[in-house]
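Support request, please re-run this one:
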Amino acid sequence: MAEAEQVKVDETPISAIQRRDSLEKHLQTRPDSKDLKDRHILLDTNAAPSLQSAAQDLERQRATDSLKKGLEKRPEKEELIERNILPHSTAAPAIQGQQKELEKHMRADTLEEKMKHRPRPEELVKDGILQADEDPTK
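Re-run finished. Output below.
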């Protein structure tokens, strides 16, 4: 069983021609510099290599400053609730959608219940709330 787990490594030497052919094959499939820059493997910069790390640090610091500035201008949660941007809820964010849906159904049920107990137009005319010519059934 121990013999089956051992993997044999081919240690036969290869010729210079085989090595060159292998290298050429790998160079042909090598990605171009634009692809490497798009994948963030190579830096997309015209700066000298000795200045690239400083340029990268400056760019990172600029982004950090921009984020800090944006966060400082960000309105408080209470203001967003007052402006109806955020819902006023103490429920966990994961269930706020279900809470909103439940509230909607509860309002619909309440409205339906009130419509069932609504006085008929004849009763409103009889009670003097509506005039006889205002009867909506006619």
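The longest helix spans residues 49-73. The helical segments are 2-5, 16-28, 33-38, 49-73, 77-82, 96-116, 121-126.
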